[in-house]
Amino acid sequence: MCRRLVFLVPLLLGAAPAARGQTGTADTASPLHGFPYAYYTPETDWAFGGTAVVTFRPGGDPLLNPSSVTLDAYYTVLKQFRCSVQPEIYLGGNRWIIAGSAGYGKIVDRYWGVGPGTGDSDSTKYVKGMFQLQARAELLLVEKVKCGLLLEFERVWMITEDENALLRYGGTPGRDGATSSGAGIAFSRDSRDNIFYPASGSYHQVEFTVFAKALGGSYASQRLLVDLRTFLPIGKQVLGIQVYGMAVGGTPPFWRLALLGGDYIMRGYYLGRYRDRITLGAQAEFRAMLFGPFGAAAFIGGGEVSPSPGAFRLGGVLPSCGGGLRYMIDRTEKLTLRIDAGFGSGSSGIYFDVREAF
Q: Are 238 and 231 in contact (CB under 8 A)?
């Protein structure tokens, strides 16, 4: 089950609707927004934390896409914690984008095994420590098309494992922890009218990353990611459509297989409830601003994991649906705070985040 009960008390630091000046930039809105929250899951018990996001344009250039830095941290009554920072910076008239993330924590996770047929009762709960670092730099090649380099480093160490020793079966790669270190290349095409709350245009991204022992990793593997999004205006509302796929080769640690679920696609499933060499998913979301800064969304989707392209089955597609509320914390930049309830096959989840799911 992927069940989460969330309570939030938005501070909305500077979240009042922004007034526009002659240039179309915010004259009165603060670029800083912060939100404390609390939630409960069976794995973590009660957790308390906060999220903050700051938006800005380097040099005050009103033609740049808004850059942002997001910080998040939480602590649970079981002494688990995680803190992270995610910058996304636009430079040089939007010709450059520099982005990444850094995270450190001690968290509870679950492992059900590999493949689409794993049972709900066959799972291992374990606690792991982790440090993650990702960086990406992309340069505009031709109109709306960027190419760039990726770097990833991750160290995971196992702290505890319950008596159900599922991870020990078959010599699961990464069962004692592992280091992943890789480099790759990315291509993207972005014609969205807004990066936070697009009402038209599309965003297409393809990444290929190689993880190698020569770069300091414990295992050698490869990962291909394809993310295709399009946004269609329907009156004053928006229909977003996303198709997502990931394929993993070589010998990755079990947490670096292609995972299904989580906060962004296939909401309603625990991230990693299903995992295998390949995952495919698609979703459509209808977004409507109702009055003032308040809005709502409804979504539907489906996805599946498989060991190979030829093993996908139409009858094996897992459903996902749900909806949620929106609060536009910055009406100039169209930055939203969202809370979604997602429902899957025998599974559900509640998700709280800054920005839309896609």
A: yes
Question: pTM, whole model, 2 decimals?
Answer: 0.87
Q: Are 205 and 169 within 8 A, CB to CB?
A: no
Domain of 339: which CATH number? 2.40.160.50
Do 314 and 297 form a contact (C-beta atoms < 8 A)? no
Look at the chain and report how many structural domains it folds into.
1
Q: What is the 3-state secondary structure (H, E, C) of the chain?
A: CCCCEEEECCCCCCCCCCCECCCCCECCCCCEEEEEEEEEECCCEEEEEEEEEEEECHHHCCCCCCEEEEEEEEEECCCCEEEEEEEEEEECCCCEEEEEEEEEEEEEEEECCCCCCCCCCCCEEEEEEEEEEEEEEEEEEECCEEEEEEEEEEEEEEEEECCCCHHHCCCCCCCCCEEEEEEEEEEEEECCCCCCCCCCEEEEEEEEEEECHHHCCCCCEEEEEEEEEEEEEECCEEEEEEEEEEEEEECCCHHHCEEECCCCCCCCCCCCCEEECEEEEEEEEEEEEEECCEEEEEEEEEEEEECCHHHCCHHHCEEEEEEEEEEEEECCCCEEEEEEEEEECCEEEEEEEECCCC
- The per-residue pLDDT string of the chain (358 residues; one tens digit each, 9 = 90 and over) reads 454 555 555 444 444 443 333 333 433 356 888 889 888 776 778 889 999 999 999 988 888 999 999 999 999 998 899 999 999 999 999 999 999 999 999 998 888 989 998 877 778 888 899 999 999 999 999 989 999 999 999 999 998 766 556 777 667 899 889 999 999 999 999 999 999 999 999 999 999 999 999 999 999 999 999 999 999 999 999 999 999 999 999 999 999 999 999 989 999 999 999 999 999 999 999 999 999 999 999 999 999 999 999 899 888 899 999 999 999 998 889 999 999 999 999 888 889 888 999 9
Expressed as residue numbers, the domain containing 297 is 5-354
